[in-house]
Amino acid sequence: MERLLIVNADDYGLSKGQNYGIIDACKHGLVTSTTALVNGAAIDHAARMSRRTPELAVGMHFVLTLGEPLSPMPGLTREGKLGKWIWQMAEEDSLPMDEIAHELECQYRRFIDLFDAEPTHFDSHHHVHMIPQIFPLVAEFAKSKGIALRVDRTIPYPFELPEGLRSTESFSSEFYGDAVSEALFLKVLDSSMARNEQSLEVMCHPAFVDRTIMGSAYCYPRLDELDVLTSESLKYAIAERGYRLGTYRDV
Asked: Which amino acids are annotated as binding site for Mg(2+), given as ranges?
């Protein structure tokens, strides 16, 4: 039986180098899908590139840890900026949930304005939508819009999926870091096959290096990811395992 594989590139709109890398990995490799940061510095460039690359499915990368929000968030921002202190606030159970709900709606509306379409799916920068207090909010929002959602079922806390919410059976963030290689990518697929899962999303971050990417904690491995994801031998190995490349439209 054919299995569905979604190769999703996060961080579309972060920088022009990121955008060009994602487009290259789509046109010449395995990337079928991406998720856009609507508050990213290069989001307008990403939207223009997307119009010339209709084969690339575009979802929304909900942002609560980077840059400026689209709406006033005095309870979450510091000097008007978002940041990684969100996890400490979650541990203290002091998240401003009304602000987060409003910002989700604003980013969704901004996505539609930019791309003239609804997102194919939702996920989030630094996986913030999997924070226990935030997950039910985003899941219900996705269900209400009829939009699929990335769900990391390896997170060690119980959560309920709203009935009718679309997602893949499995999600992997393992294709990441200094160990990026064809062997690592295939290991992720083989592990999913061993669990007899019929649909899998693999997260990736292919990019060309520019000044923005050079300032990122995750820099040169993005080039390595691009090399792996445009490998002909990897494409053959995936097909040989019975995987069909697709998008969240197929879920």
From this structure: 61, 125
